[in-house]
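[Q] Does anyone have a clean structure-token version of this?
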Amino acid sequence: MSTLQPNCNMRFIPLLLCILMVNCQAEPEKAMVDETETQAINQVSFPENRSVEFVTGQFEFEDHPDFVRVADSLSDKEIYLQKPTYEAFLDMAAHAEADGVELIVISGTRNFMVQKFIWDRKWENSEEETGMAKARDILLYSSMPMTSRHHWGTDIDLNNLTNSWFKEGEGKIVYDWLTTHANDYGFYQPYTDKSLNGRNGYEEERWHWTYMPLADHYLEFYNQNITNEDITGFEGSDLAPQIDMVANYVNGVSVKVKNY
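[A] Here you go.
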């Protein structure tokens, strides 16, 4: 009686089944890791420090328990940020460094008094003849005190303060990296090209990035509690209602930020 010999292909079936089972298990596990990383970025604890004083910059950030100083190796001067912002930036900067890109924070938290100093100096040095013309000129790139996102410890200026620097050479490499990877770490460019966005307010700022998992909460609170009439205490502040600072500048952000 002849003995039935197994087909050689049949001997590989258990091995193939094993490989298929491993692959089927690997994909969901990878997806779970990616989803966990995304949740870690977006699920920042609700900021208990929200208040009218806080969102309008009327506090001392150097002594505030929620703020930390940026390392000298990552900044060009003494700069403070909120802890979640800084932690996310450290992760982003490490990724950038691994890709050969250096990110340097050149501006971070600015409270009311710091912003007032900047505004009043520009107001005094402006060559415009009328108050409105002075304000409009300053508002191309600088905020009125009480209206700046830099009050919140969520916003950073990186590497250089001119758009042209980011359009060629090293600057273009930095900007291309940020536009590709920054959102993965919760950072968004609030002031994009207005001709592409249709937004109001400040001109494009390729250097300015905001940490949206925190900033979104502060913008919501600001809109619920601050009006143009509340903006006061510096040269030209009486123009805030006429300019409609809250609608045109505080909320004059990119589509991605607005719809975050």
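[Q] Thanks! Anything notable?
[A] Residues 1-40 have pLDDT under 50 and may be disordered.
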